[in-house]
Amino acid sequence: MYLDLAVDFAQEDVKGYAEIMVIVASADGALVKEELAIIEALMGRCMMHPEMRVDVRNLLENPPSLDLVISKLNPVVLKIALRDAILVAAVDGEYDESELKVIKTLAKAAGVHKKELSALFEWIKTGWEWHNESFLHLGLL
Q: Which of 16, 8, 1, 11 is nearest to 82 (CA)?
């Protein structure tokens, strides 16, 4: 996975970031393997300590309060978490209403307006299309 600002987060920010991914993935009440896989990948990208990963995995069945997690994070972490929360929500092929509610709450907390949020959703859509093109090039679809 690519490197970005998340690799420089302090460990307490990494934990909050990962908690937000868990909140999004569990928002609809059903965790699927694609969501679990992307959360694992995102934790790896952040260079999250293995013991902290175990703590985050344990939250999957009982996620923390979104408001509590948001209150501990700075705007940069919230914006990166927003971007990646949309990825987590999109990975199973559809956006559930409960996932969208979490995303909108994150956007508001991060100071991201409707126009920027729409651009993020479009970026995610384009990214999935770009990624899936590789299967065509490899003759797998």
A: 16
Which letter does DSSP use for residue 74 in this model? -
Residue 108 and residue 66 in contact, taking contact as beta carbons nearer than 8 Å: no
Q: Region 64-70: what's the mean pLDDT?
A: 97
Q: What is the largest CA-CA distance in the chain?
A: 47
Q: What is the pLDDT of residues 114-130, one digit of tens each?
A: 999 999 999 999 999 99
Radius of gyration of the chain (CA): 15
Please give the Cα distance from 48 to 28 (Å, whole number).
Answer: 25
pTM greater than the 0.90 cutoff: yes
Domain boundaries, the chain: 5-112
Q: Which CATH architecture has domain 5-112?
A: Orthogonal Bundle (1.10)
Report the pLDDT value the prediction gives residue 5, as an integer from 0 to 100. Answer: 79
